[in-house]
Amino acid sequence: MQSRTRPTVMAVWLVIAGAVGWWAAFQLTLEKFHAYENPGSAASCDFSPLVQCSKNLDSWQGSVFGFPNPLIGLGAWVAPIVVGIAILAGARFARWFWCAFEAGMIFAIGFVIWLISQSIFVLGTLCPWCMVTWAVTIPSFYVVTLHVLRIGAVPAPSSIRRGAGSLMSWVPVLTVATYAVVATIAQLRLDVLGALF
After folding, report:
1. Can you give the CATH number for the domain in which 43 is found?
2. Cα 129 from Cα 54, distance rounded (Å)
3. For the chain, first and last CA: distance in Å?
4. Residue 2 located in a structural domain
5. For residue 85, is pLDDT > 60?
6. For the chain, what is the total number of helices (H) and then of strands (E)?
């Protein structure tokens, strides 16, 4: 990260992550439309019984709020893009804004953790576009949470603020470690390597 007044690296990441997440949500939305138009047909991201989108999209978990989950992504992933671009343009946000943005990230990571657990332990599938969403949500949560802590948007002792600032450079390591945990759980539960090879 660069200066605390303009966290340029974080801003660039938010734009990239937002664009990737939005594209994944868009692709899943297209798959849902395809399923509506062609009932019973396979999705283009159905590669095997293990790696597929259809089972996830057709399940109740795929429409947990009464409408397809990808629609949440189409709306929600716009926020990081806008925030990132605004920071790059020189915008500074009030404490309440960062708290609201962090609340959104907490919801996002909580929802992703739940979806991961449902996918691995209940549905027994790995949805490719869903995994893209997981992959960008996890580091985005780490980056925003550490930033919010280090700038003092959330009241915390100075030691925690300093620690958050120091941990910012460790976000790639934290991210890879989290990926490894998810991959290990998926392997133990679904024997991914055995199914693929």
Report:
1. 1.20.1440
2. 11
3. 40
4. no
5. yes
6. 9, 0
